Amino acid sequence: MESLVKYVQDEFVERKDLPEFSAGDTITVYYEIKEGQKTRTQFFRGVVIQLRGTGSSQTFTIRKMSGTVGVERIFPINLPAIQKIEINKRGKVRRARIFYFRGLTGKKARIKEAKR
């Protein structure tokens, strides 16, 4: 059954050409919002907290600070509303899921830039 699901996902789900990114990277996601008849593009810029799942069911979580409040958003990798993803900064972290980042504020919340 799992192989059948994987086959259907590989064959029929459209893949977008998105850049490779990982936890610790600062990225900007441009996505489309529909309000009634109108559509507009909005962006969400923040640090990637985690990548989760595989294939077409993969998701990624981005965290940003809005004033003094931390805001997290989960995006499916195959979301049709995503127009493009820009990588602003490559981060160097030791873990694949940086949940400890939620508890850091100020200068401690900085991530070193990777030399790639």
Produce the secondary structure layout:
Layout: H1 2-12, E1 26-35, E2 38-52, E3 59-66, E4 69-76, E5 82-89
Antiparallel strand pairs: 1-2, 1-5, 2-3, 3-4
Describe the fold and architecture.
The chain has one helix at 2-12, and strands at 26-35, 38-52, 59-66, 69-76, 82-89. The protein has a 5-stranded antiparallel β-sheet, with no helix packed on it. The protein is mainly beta and 116 residues long. The chain is globular and about 45 Å long. The mean pLDDT is 89.
Overall pLDDT: 89
**Segments where pLDDT lies below 50 for 5+ residues?**
none
**Through-space gap between termini:** 40 Å
Q: What is the approximate shape?
A: globular
The major pleated sheet works out as:
5 strands, antiparallel
Order of helix and strand elements from N to C terminus:
HEEEEE
Radius of gyration: 16 Å
Q: Please give the count of helices.
A: 1
Helix/strand class: mainly beta
Task: Provide the spatial order of strands within the biggest beta sheet.
Answer: 4-3-2-1-5
Task: Give the quaternary arrangement of the chains.
Answer: single chain
Strand content: 35-45%
Percentage of residues in helical conformation: under 10%
The number of E-state strands comes to 5
Keywords:
five-stranded antiparallel beta sheet; 5 strands; single chain; 116 residues; mainly beta
Report a brief summary of the structure:
The chain is mainly β. The protein has 1 helix and 5 strands; from the N terminus they run αβββββ.
